[in-house]
Amino acid sequence: MITGKTVQSRKTQALLLLLSPITILLGAFFLIPLGIMVVYSFLEPGLYGGVEWTWYPYNYGRIIGWPLNDYETFEPIYLSIFLSSLKIASLTVIFSLLICYPAAFWVSRMSERRKSFVLFLITLPFFANLLVRIYAWLLLLRPTGFINMALQSIGLVAQPLDMLFSSFAVIVGMVYIFTPFMFLPIYANVEKLDYSLVRASQDLGATPLQTFLRVILPLTLPGIAGGSIIVFIPALGNFIVPSFLGGSKVQMTGNLIERSFLQSRDWPFGAALALLIMASVVLVVMFQVVRSSRAQARGAA
Amino acid sequence: MKRMLTRLAGVASILLLTTQMASADGKLSLYNWGDYINPELIDAFSKEYKVDVTLDTYSTNEEMLARIQAGASGYDLVWPSVHMHDIMQKLGLLQAAHPNQMPGWENIDKAALRSHEDPQGDYCLPYAWGAVGILYNKKLIPDLKSWRQFFDYAKANPGKVTMLDDLRETLGVGLIMTGSSVNSRNPEEIEKAEAFIMQQKPNIGAFRYDVIPLVTSGDIAAGHYYVGGVLNVLQNPDLLGFVIPEEGATMYQEDVCLLEGAPNSENAELFMQFLMRPENAAKNSERLTNGVVNTAAVSLLPDNLKTNPSINPSPEVRAKLQIFEDLGKDLRVYTRAWDRIKTN
Amino acid sequence: MNRILSSFKIFPSVFNIYGFLFLAFLYMPLALIVLYSFNANPINIAVWTGFTFDWYRTIFGGAAVETTFDSAFSESPQRIFEVVKNSFLVAVSAATIATVIGTATAIALARYKFFGKRFYQTLLLLPILIPDIVLGIALLVFFVGVGFELGLLTIIIGHVTFLSSYVFVVVSARLAGMDTTLEQASADLGAGPFTTFRRVTLPQIMPGVVGGFLLAFIISLDDVVITYFIAGVGSQTLPLFILAMMRRGLRPQITALAVLILVFSFVVATVGLLLRNRKS
Amino acid sequence: MGFLQIASAHKAYQTPEGTLVRALDDITINVRSNEFLTLLGPSGCGKTTLLKTIAGFEDLDGGDLILEGRSLKAVPAHRRPFNTVFQNYALFPHMNVSQNIAYGLDVAGVKKAERDRRVGEALEMVGLAGYGGRKPSQLSGGQQQRVALARSLVLKPRVLLLDEPLSALDRKMRETMQIELKNLQNSVGITFIFVTHDQEEALAMSDRIAVLSHGKVQQLGSPNDVYDTPANEFVANFVGTSNLFSGRIVENDAARGLVTIETANGRRLIASGRDFANGSAVKMVLRPEHLRLVDTGEFEGAGTLEGQVKDVIFVGSVIHVHVDVGFGRTAIVHHHHDRAGIRNAIEAGANVRIAYSPSSAHLIAAERG
Fold it and tell me: Quaternary state and partners of this protein (chain D) (predicted)?
């Protein structure tokens, strides 16, 4: 009567008000840019950067072998770089998982006071500047660095190990910077773990390994899956870590993209590579969505 | 809590206002390579002309070009290498500042007018030049003279040398070693250069720019580097050395150019004149340890710079230095070769 | 695992040693940076030549006393001040805007049923999930394409784009834990939607909002990849400044600056933690 | 015309599984001024939905809500002169007791002095004077309940809506609060609409009860009506315990007002009743407390049933005796154990006789289908 509107129409009004900022934001500065990038990937590179507005699907030909023209030849190296990026990202996930999983159990068994203090300690390093943290690993891993000095002084190695400028260094650096992304989801899951289930399994005669594989692991799997995805995705597209710790000898697709845009002035090719990464990310995310919704459906049934 | 957010928003808007206010009066925006100007000069210029100078930096010509093309139109002066100077002039990104009509032009070495597009210096002011050679650690390699020695050392000590992460510089070394021009457009020659670098690659520790700390600490014995590294050599002459290899080397030269649509072109022109003053040119060279383009400044330099064979090479050595030219579409051949080198 | 579990009791030291190593892994690089920020070697932070406070002093415009300091090796305090100011300006503005947008979105998705909700839920996760290099170049291509001048404004817009999603996630978690009948009660007692939001919903989700703001602030302050692509004139931020410097080897001054920022972040994080503990 | 009319209210919604649920299916109730009306029903019957639409938290799909002749359909929750006491009380955790109670007044723009006075009165009324400075989390469940009441009543609403407000309390507390609520309603003279699934609570407090099931009003009447003369089998079963026997009317003694029912297996039972013609299918409702275990021959003229004791459950004040009366039926008898004469007979396996007064038997028409 005051305005002649029902509860529903009032709600609709409020909803519009609440949703319009994000809609405008993501529409204008996320979806449209991604769309433009898709368009660019099908255009001819301009001689000095930018694009020529000519239909040019050959950027993809260069990567996957089809279609091709006189100027673009199939270079299997781009796929092999992509595969090695997948490998490095996967190894990063595996190592950070191996490091964080036991740590999550360690923290989850603490008293409340100690727990929040240790969690604080674990999160704190990640407030330091990312680049400086990466640089610190360069200092640690180099032949005259702290780790080599320590190894030599305890007589473990005679010659300094060549750790810097290798896939190893890249993986160490990425594991380091992504540790909280792996740790927090796993920890959130481990903390909720009901230990009476572990005792029940024990009581029902399961061996420690069986208990771990059949009770603890399945119950903490959502955290593992979440953490793995959150680490895998930025690791796949990373170019900062390989360019510093890989000595530019370890190539990841991210480096190629950066170079296409800022060095070799081939924007469409860079856009095509970026879409390749995007596509693999979407695949991984969809896989996880399907998996978890199936798990939910199973839970509901 | 809400009050805290409001206050933060307030602070943000005030900051935004002050940045905009600062741009209202006496401003100059420079877009230069990192570490490529003596900061004291900027301070001195600011004080003398009451101009607020901002300096942003880039790492490659292409990065700078990309950003200028991307609409970073607020800069006044840029420092492109000569071939990029040509490209930018062709693309209409520069405007003629006529440094050749400014006081102090008489000090400029006319041999430094290397641009094809700008032979008279109507557009840009030559800034500095230098060779790209090898910086090495004398404790590990007492005496280094040539690329041959460099690669032999690498063969004996894999991983102990670095080359620049720059496709033209590093392929350029390959071209020099296989006897071609660094501006070759011949795919076969480029292929040979690629093969040469590929052959060396297992022994090369990394492709990177930050070699000074690594060479100083001995993590790396020698690194492909710019003549600017001589600054460190002079501070640490017993430990470090810099050499222009016998086989020849690439050289670079940067010019100072006024951008089309520069918001503060008058201050930019003042800055060009300021740079041409011999005492300023000398002060800058001390810091950059680059080749001097200001003949009047040479006499003001300290002796160790004046006589340094890397900074001021003999005519025979100069003859072996090659400068990059714009390759147009053929750059793609280099890009492919470089992608393959870095991957395989 | 029951053996592992009992090992908590019988051999707690096994896990504690592991935990100690884990923390050592996290802190070793930081300790190194702190150490090197006191290294007197002006050229090369990797070679230790002595102890000095000079780098901290020069950040604030003081003169070096102990080292053979040459001003040529340091950035001017004004320059450092400028990039730090840019960084904070971007971080404060972007985090503030993202907090408003992210919170509004979280409320819309938590409190309303509407067609396309799933679409929004997925869409909102995308900016977090796609690699930042993809977002960075997409924004670059977009800003150039529409003729947007690159600068602080484009950086702020770019940051808001992905920070809103982070705030959304944090605030949504808080909203999910909030009793919806409180809002009904408020309406029931005569409060309009806005009053209800201001006096009931907002105080309830405030820890989430502040947490989201702080997270967004820290991420923005540290972002290098997206900023790298969309920065323009006079808009160099601290991470870009450090990136440019790292290409030539890190300066001791920068390590000192990094330590100062770490201390600052430490304070912010501590405040955030205290707030969270007080509220829950 | 009633004070508040709920006029053929309709509301349906989709479950996540995709089935359509009719939460309100043509509900019409005329709520009287100053009455204590209870909406009683099992969970999912639509009572909470009805309460929410009255409060204005949800829209009606169809029908109307009319307060003194004025439709409320377009009036948002915060403008309706109704207040709600929530099941979980919904006290604002970030405000203390006084601030909680003052909230509605504050929002309405009542001046501070007036506000303080009324908050003080409200605290006094619910017996919590001196608790104003406490946070809700520092109060017991019963105290929180009183705060929630005070918070609503301080606004002097036309109608107070109570959504299962006693369900979170323990049994003792609940009984105390039932009395207090009833007294409060009498003294403030406000219409209470009370939602519960607890039939004892409904019977104890209400002026009228609306029994709801599947979105429909099954019966609307006083507690006595609902209990003594349930309108259908659902009400009979939901309100109190019932023994139900279905059958057909075979004799109709109009003079004595008695009918005889024959069950499917031929057993004959008598009941008082006039409204049914011979041959009509009916159900006979017998409350357990109206059944007595008797010695043979006692109580001429009463209805009787014979059977065998299956279980004897001692619940304190009475003994619940489950008697197998044949044809697959069990009758429940609430037996008062002071009747020593037959106490010995009550053990599992004993043959017993059950008697009832025909007037205590209530007949309802058997539902079709």
Answer: The complex is composed of two ATP-binding proteins (PotA), two transmembrane proteins (PotB and PotC) and a solute-binding protein (PotD).
What architecture (CATH level 2) is domain B130-251+311-343? Answer: 3-Layer(aba) Sandwich (3.40)
Amino acid making up residue C32? L
At residue B255, φ and ψ (nearest 5 deg) are: -115, 150
In chain D, which among 35-54 make CB contacts under 8 A with chain C? none
Put simply, the answer to whether C129 touches A26 (Cβ < 8 Å) is: no
The domain tally of chain C equals: 1
CB contact (8 A) between residue C188 and residue D77: yes
Distances (CA, A) of D135 to A148, C203, D147, D148: 60, 15, 11, 13
Residue C279 distance to chain D (closest CA, Å): 10
Q: Is residue A223 part of a domain?
A: yes
Touch between chain D and chain B: 3 or more Cβ pairs under 8 Å: no
pLDDT tens digits along B220-272: 999 999 998 888 888 888 999 999 999 999 999 999 999 998 889 999 999 99
**Which residue in B84, A290, B260, D259 sits closest to A298, CA to CA?**
A290
Q: Which residue has the tokens 């592991």?
A: C18
ipTM here: 0.79
- Which of D200, D185, D292 has the alpha carbon at shortest distance from D239? D200
Q: Which fold has domain B2-128+253-306?
A: D-Maltodextrin-Binding Protein; domain 2 (3.40.190)
Report pTM. Answer: 0.81
Residues 64-123 of A with CB under 8 A from B: 71, 73, 75, 77-78, 80-81
**What residues of chain C lie within 8 A of the CB of B57, using their CB?**
236, 244
Q: Which amino acid is at A258?
A: E
- Of D219, D192, D182, D288, nearest to D40 by C-alpha is D219
Are D356 and D277 contacting, i.e. CB atoms less than 8 angstroms apart?
Answer: no
Closest residue, chain B, to C240 (C-alpha):
B57
CB contact under 8 A, A145 and B335: no
Indicate the residue of B1, B5, B213 with minimum beta-carbon distance to C96.
Answer: B5
